[in-house]
Amino acid sequence: MHRQNKLRLQLLLGTALLAAPFSALAQTAPAPVDTTPAGLDDIVVTATKRETNLQDTPISISVLNSEALEDRHVQSLMDLADGAVPGLRVATFEARQSALTIGIRGIVPNDANQPAREQGVGIYVDGVYLGRQHGLGAALLDVERIEVLKGPQGTLFGRNTEGGALSLVTRKPTGEFGMRAVAGVGNYNSYNSELHVDFPAIADFAVKMDGVISAQGPVTKNILPGEEGFGAYDRRGLRGQVRWTPTDNFTADLAADISKDKNTPFYSQLLNFNPNGLTVVPFTSTSVPSGSIRALSPLVQVNGDSVMKSADIGVPQQWSVDDTKGVDLHLSYHPTDSLELRSITAYREVDVEQYDNIAGAHRPPVTGPNGNFSRYSLAGLWQHQFSQEFQAVGSLGDRIDYVGGLYYFKETASDDASTPSTNKWNADGTGYTINDPTPTIRGSRSIDRASRAESESKAVYGQATWTPAVLNDALHITAGGRFTQDDKSGVLSVVNNAATNFTFNEKNERFNPMVTVAYDVSNDVNVYAKYATGYRAGGASSRSLTYRSFGPEDIKSYEMGLKSDWLNHRLRVNAAAFYSEREDSQIDFSLVTVIGASTRNTLETINAPGTTKIKGVELEGMARVTDALTLSASYAYTDAEVPPTRNPFSGVVQQVFIAYTPENAFSVAADYTAPMFGANFKAHVDGNYADATQAFDQFELKNDKSFIVNGRLALADITTRDGGPLLEVALWSRNLLNEAHVYRRDPSNRGVIGDYGNFNTPRTFGIELRASY
């Protein structure tokens, strides 16, 4: 009955917009075919705080517009884990969909899931920085394009953008009536719907509303009755915008949004047993001698080949819930034609309740007869932030374009965590019972840790591009810098359910310069050389028993690039080669210990000695082969070398690695459009490959390589009666070939059980109806 109600909601959404009867499809004669393919469209970006043509912007940038997001059925940033942009890496933190790890060019913090830990890639929505990785899996609300800015963006975007920035730009109110609706269903009991309405302007006010629902059932079934399965989500978002334009030179945009992302973690499978070849003692043994390992319960399954459709052990599991909300005010004033003054004021909140019981008996605590097992990772995080930015964007004559600004950011975040064991074996491992749920209830938990951190950042920045009156105005020299002052502090108030008073306080000042020299070889070919810097703030690990602090890290990057259009804009080739030096790299070391009926993951973050060297090449190409067929391809090569670092737990200086960064990654795509039945037939297919990657800084064992194929077929621009909506019907599939790979492999418990890990999502598919006025 519940499922039927959901489907009725989908039908109601479509029916509300499509109530008018269809008229006969248009029978117009096809237009004569032009044998010369049209040129590729220009792409507008805002990487320099002003709108520019991608091909004229001397930065390595990848752009996914709204059509590309539709073709790949991208509903959240989580879906970009398929490798749509080879240089951009997206992964879950642990196996949880409640927080995302995002990296560019080898800058990937393995555990930024803490109040006092910063990301290495800045995430922005309409110019507003998002301070935490929590809530990044929420549904996308009418995104016009996603800009992936590669390399340090420390001058215009600030701290914590060592690897680059991910900038989401949403559609704004138009003041003219328009409506778009989406309704779809798919396998795994998935369904999605969207409604976007632009209202006609009233006086000087234009209003726009966006609503999104996206849900999917579990990938792996939980066999404990009444409990949630694994890999499910239910994302809902709502946003309203008001644009006020009282004069031709002033605009005020006020937006407010709220999202709820309910999700369950992906199932962590036991990939192998006893890989070290230890002596196996029976499950019923009272002890396990040194050099031995306890046999598995006969109920436990080992599967390193494919995602399990059903868990072997039933466990308590409920939804994790991410609540995000915010409001932002953008003001724009043009006192003259050559100057724009801007103000961006924003306030945001994130509230996370995490429930993660993903492994049953597949990871510690590993116990024998009548022992407790199945670690339920329970955590909460609460964050709120305020930011204020003033910008001046203008030109001095025809030779100098400039941008300058002041920035202020204030954040407070707190968290707590608990890890009770929910299950208990019987005497011989042939059965189990569920423990008293009281320790899982907030207020009754034994708290592993609780912390609070505050951060205040102030910055002043400026950048100018000068085109001297030489070489036919083909030379462009850009220079800029940003001065940042950070003040961070925190307290770890609880460790292992005991009150403590561990604190840290850190103040940093940085000046990050940038210089770019660009040259127009022709109207369609541009080359550039760039020097850029950035830094990531230090902090303290709330997973440390002593709240051990660590310092900031700094990066210097050297880049050479090419932007080019050929064959009358029918072929586009962009390339960049870079070399980076990162000082004091923040490296994570973890140790899992068993404390009574609970397990604790202690994590220490260490600044690696010396210089981390990262080098790479990025290529992007697009060709309009015919008016109907467009081909595209992109490639990223990344090589990183981190100096050996002392493990704080073992005291041994060991090799360390960069997580989630393949040495080679590429993406290819084909798009075909042709008239059919008075409408337009559209076909899209893309393939995305990545080499095997490291899942952890401290372990050499790698994840699997991957190759994900996505596809979409659509009949678009279907006309209805005069004045009726345009329709589109589409079939889509993600991971069309049902490829399976382990994207996160954990070898930390090889001596007591084996490696465990997580597989990617299997093939998903569905049908979708779109309508627009």
Could you please describe the fold and organization of this structure?
The chain is mainly β. The strands form ten sheets. It has a 22-stranded antiparallel barrel. Strands 3-8-9-6-7 form a five-stranded mixed sheet. The chain has a three-stranded antiparallel sheet with strand order 15-44-43, with no helix packed on it. The radius of gyration is 27 Å and the shape is globular. The two termini are 33 Å apart.
- Describe the sheet with the most strands: 22 strands, antiparallel, barrel
The whole-number mean of residue pLDDT values reads 92
Shape: globular
Helix amount: under 10%
Structural class: mainly beta
Task: Tell me the fraction of residues in β-strands, as a range.
Answer: over 45%
Extended strand count: 45
How many helical elements? Answer: 2
User: Termini separation (Å)?
Assistant: 33 Å
Extract low-pLDDT stretches: 1-29
Report Rg: 27 Å
